[in-house]
Description:
The chain has helices spanning 22-26, 141-144, 149-160, 199-211, 238-241, 245-249, 268-272, 277-282, 298-312, 316-328, 354-365, 378-384, 440-444, 450-456, and strands at 31-34, 40-46, 51-56, 59-67, 70-72, 78-83, 89-94, 97-103, 166-173, 176-182, 192-193, 333-335, 350-352, 369-370, 373-374, 397-403, 406-415, 419-424, 429-435. By secondary structure, the chain is of the alpha+beta class.
Amino acid sequence: MKKLLFLIPLIIGCSSPKEKSDYEKLCEYEGNYEYVDKTTLDIVASELDTTLYAIVDSAKYPLKHIALDSFTNIQDVPVVFERDKSNRVKGYRTDGLEFKLITSKIEKMEMFPRKELLHNPDSYVYHKPKKTTDGLETGSLEDEFKNPEPIINMVKETIKGKFPDVHSILIYKNNKLVLEEYFYGYDENTPHQLRSATKPFISGILGIAVEKGLIKSEKEKLLPYFNSRYPEIANLDDRKKEITIENFLMYRHGMDCENNNVESKGNEQSMMESKDWVKYTLDLPMVAESGKSSSYCTGCALTLGSLVEIVTNKNIEDFAKENLFTPLGISDYAWTFEPNQASRNNFSQMYITSRDLIKLAKLFKDGGKWKDKQIISESWINKTFDMDEGDYGYLWEHKYFVIDGQKYNSYLASGNGGQKINIWPELDMITVFTGGNYNSYALYGESTPPNKMIPNYILKTGEKPADNNVYKK
């Protein structure tokens, strides 16, 4: 399915009074421009925070104003706009490359959480989510939470702009969707990019392949499955030969691969510079025995996705459509799995609506069953969530919060930008956040909004897990 872009039309413009405001000055740069690999990007000025943004695949990346027509991007690389003889912007230069302005007429992405409520968030009125034909039951916050007020306040604070670029917040409690809120022009029909939150669902797809007997067991050695595709593997030693499929599922690969370590040969950025991301991963040198300790590595999930294609002799998208998405009634999505440089802009990620993320999480929460149909085996789900504290299961992460001495456990699918799908088994709850705070840690030195919103609002409603979850240091 073709990659989708969701740019929301906004019928406003930049005025041109005698004395231009800072925002109106930024409007001079707005337009659709050439970009790398024969693609394009939009440059948009935000009235909300008086910032210029580059929009790539609906993701906003701020440009910091330095002087005159000079800015820097999120990598601190200069971006310098050029003007023609009439003093109109005609293009920009960056990293030794020149890109032309194609047109100044663009459909502007919505830059306000909810513009009509921004200065009067207290006028927000909670509404029970509407019931549709997607199979999700709906309920009200008041019926399912002892004290829903913190959640209402969280929505109001998001409307104020306290939690920028949160695109959706959904809460599913006691088998009912009780909160469904969207911001910045997003809605229930917008498939949202998942980034790395795609990975845990690859695990489920692999589990279906195992259940069908296409793989005898995840305990099997990994490399033999790739012999015909990659006859020669670099840095092949006895330790690498022992790597199992399960080692990759739990990120216990033993290779020199750690996403957030720039010194690691397998870090995500280095991998993406290679022609074949799976081959690059399998060629990495070993630094330890496999199966001992975990190290988060994007190449593991991509390799497992390729493994599904090898054993099924199908594109993973087709296998997933037949065995996962269609049985769940999920049709409004996009996914092109291509672990090579063709995916440098979309990262081989899924695009799925927030309500469908609830359905996928519910499938895992309910032991692989949807509407009395077993889609993923219960044993696979049990092994998926059999993980050590703060570690990884089958591409899912154990995430917990400690509040007032009480420990709240969850299983997490997380992606760059604030994509957070948490399953809270002891609270009978699922929370879904989507967002656009891409590379937020690199930009601001802090985590994305959901990491603050969950403990400070959702877990402050008075709901308590089992008594035996009192946290002990």
